[in-house]
Amino acid sequence: MILGLFVWSVVHFVPTLGLSFKNGVIEKYGDKTYMAVFSILIVLSLVMIVFGWRSTIPEFVYVLPLSTKPIAMLLIVVAFILFGAAKHATRVKQFVRHPQLSSVIVWAVAHLMLNGDSRSIVLFGGLAIWAMIEIVLINRREGAWVKPDVPSWKQEFVGLGISAVMIVVVVFLHPYIAGVPVR
After folding, report:
1. Is 117 helix (H, G, I), strand (E, B) or coil?
2. pLDDT tens-place string over residues 106-150
3. pLDDT of residue 76
4. Between 68 and 162, whose confidence is greater?
5. Strand, coil or helix: what is 60?
6. Would you state the torsion angle of the CA atoms of residues 11, 182, 114, 61, taken in this order, to the nearest 10 degrees?
């Protein structure tokens, strides 16, 4: 799992920290080859994370009160809305510069509220730290934040619908990926 998190982070840091390396690879091998290698490495890292997660015996570190569960579930819904906002026009982008990375942080915090075991701390804490570092590095690279235009309400609701479908799909697949049903 840790190796998968490492591969995930390094591959994602290449466009942020290693832009000259990325451009050199694209110049030498082409954009499609770069994207193929990037995608293969990300899928490989996810496979390592999933298999590492499932093969790790959790040791409980903490248990939060049951009253925090509804808050965590609400945060997961917010994370999906943020994740969906990253790929389409939305008013969310008037307030959140990096909705996809922010969604990872919110999702990780929610999972840390629900799961106080060692493997959860490593996985969700690791992904939250990676996303926070990415936000800082991207902000440094891109400079001042230029907010996008405000979309129509129709576009807004289409985006929310896509996020709702993503929630349903992930709830259905969660037991197969994580080995744990959504409860």
Report:
1. strand
2. 999 999 999 999 999 999 999 999 999 999 999 999 999 988 888
3. 94
4. 68
5. strand
6. -80
Cβ–Cβ < 8 Å for 93, 85: yes
Give the dihedral of Cα atoms 62, 1, 180, 128; nearest 10 deg.
60
Distance of alpha carbon 180 from alpha carbon 178, whole angstroms? 5
pTM of the model: 0.88
Q: How far apart are CA 98 and CA 92, in angstroms?
A: 10
CA angle, residues 157, 83, 108, in degrees to nearest 5: 140
Q: Alpha helices of 56-87 — where are they, by DSSP H? A: 69-85
Residue type, 44: L
CB atoms within 10 A of CB 78: 17
Total count of residues recorded for the chain = 183
State the Cα–Cα distance between residues 29 and 37, nearest whole angstrom: 11
The one-character DSSP state at 152 is P
Distance (Å, whole) CA 178 – CA 50: 7
Structure confidence by residue, pLDDT tens digits, 157-178: 888 888 888 888 988 888 887 7
User: How far is 94 from 34, CA to CA, in rounded Å?
Assistant: 32
Start-to-end C-alpha separation, the chain: 23
User: Cα dihedral sign for 154, 104, 14, 30?
Assistant: negative
Pair 120, 110: CB distance under 8 Å: no
